[in-house]
Every structure is written in C-alpha cells, then in structure tokens.
Amino acid sequence: MNTVQDHQADAALASTPSGSSETAQVRALLQLRELILSGELAGGTRIAELAIVERLGMSRTPIRAALVRLEQEGLLEALPSGGYVVQSFSERDVADAIELRGTLEGLLARLAAERGAPLVVLAEARQCLDRIDALLTAPKLDDEAFSAYVALNSHFHTLLYELADSPTITRQLERAASLPFASPSGFVLLQAQSTRARDMLIVAQDQHRQVLDAIEQREGTRAESIMREHSRLARRNLAEVLAAHPSEPLAGNMPAIRMIRRRR
Predict the structure, then answer these.
(1) Looking at the DSSP assignment, which residues form a beta bridge with residue 261?
(2) What's the rounded Cα separation, in Å, for the pair 256 and 180?
(3) Can you give the pTM of this predicted structure?
(4) Distance from C-alpha of 118 to C-alpha of 116, rounded to nearest angstrom
(5) Among 104, 164, 206, 245, whose Cα sits 20 to 30 Å from the Cα of 227?
(6) What sign has the CA pseudo-torsion 234, 178, 71, 55?
(7) What is the pLDDT of residues 186-221, one digit of tens each?
C-alpha cells in the first residue's frame, strides 16, 4: 500500500548513500514507527534506547538515529532524565494536523495550476481516478475494496504533490501527514462498516475530479479552495468516528486510535 510513511521511507533511502549503516537506520525507523502506530508502544510508554536495541536486535547507532527522527516527527518526546516517551494527541492536535495538511495541499494544487502541470503526471492522475471510479460503482464496498481505495487515494495525493514540483513544500506536507490519522486516508478503514462510508468516498472522489480539472484549466484559486475543503472531510470524519464508537472497538481496527486523548 502506498502511504505517506512508505513515501518517507523511499525518500530516506534515496537521500542517503548506499551502505549497510544507512539501510539499518531506515529499517530501524520503519520498525520503531510501526511499533508505535500499531499500538504495541502505546501513548505514554517510556522508551529506553537499550530496550529498543534488544527488542529489534540492532546496534545502538541506527536505533539512536531512529529515535531522534521520530522525535522530530512528533511521535516521541525526549525526557530530561534521558530516554523518550510515546506521545499522545488531543483531538485538537489531530484536527490541526489535518487542517495544516489541507492548507499545504491547497498550496501545492494552486502552484500546479499556476505553473502548468506535466501532462504525463496529469494523465497518470486521471487513470488513478478512473480506477477509483471503478471501485465505487459497487453498491457496497467490502474490506478488500476499502483497502484498494486507500492505496489508490494515497497514490492520487502523491501525484498531486508531483504536479506542483515543489520538494520544499512536499517535505513539510509529509511531516504534517505523518501524525496518526492526518494522512489523506487516515480514517477510511475505520469507516468501512459505516452505512454512509461509500457516500463519503463518492463526495471525496468528486473533489478529486474537480481539483484535477481546476489544475488543467490553470485555475489556481479554485484548485486551492477545493483541496482546503477536501481536508475538511477528514476533520468531519475524525469527529464522527470518535463520537460514534468507544475506544476499545476502534483500537481493534486501528490501534493507534489510543494515541488520541478524548475530550471530557
């Protein structure tokens, strides 16, 4: 599945020289991030470097680099006494991350429209949306269809970033989207059992089509506005998911939900 984290890992591999030490650093980062996002290392858990070395069976150097990187991403907090603690996030934290993602995606969409997008990438984006359309023709989506949607949706958003050709803004966007649930498909699988799930995806798909049309027509302001509105779907999904379900069933579907502190 093509996720923001996968894209970050690919970027990390591409930006470092080849060699076993750099590969070990990327492997440590991926494995440690997965432990956090899978819920195995829950919010509030204290992490000692030596314990992670023993758990992952790696040397201290790549583990130390991974811990520093995850602190930069906001998943860990360094403790004054040494070591780290797994972060938890308020609903507002996640909502703000989604809003920031929408702002940056809107900026990239506007730049793509104003600068003129590469035709080959536009064609690939249209093909991606055609495949999403084919999925959504079914009256009801099963788990396999939702998983396919997540992969295609993530790919489409990545293509949007490529349309703007702005590595600087894309790096900031990837950092914002690295928080749990802030990615473009952050809540899709949690809503798979919802009676309105397919309807929400159809609305999102219409916005995909509209923003691609705006970019092709060189309508920067319109493209930016659509992507800002697109992110607000995720904010509404956040509120609905947390309001409609107790934490434990949600944790079964996506353990990282435990990282979100509920409002009292």
Answers:
(1) 90
(2) 7
(3) 0.70
(4) 7
(5) 245
(6) positive
(7) 666 555 556 677 888 999 999 999 999 999 999 999
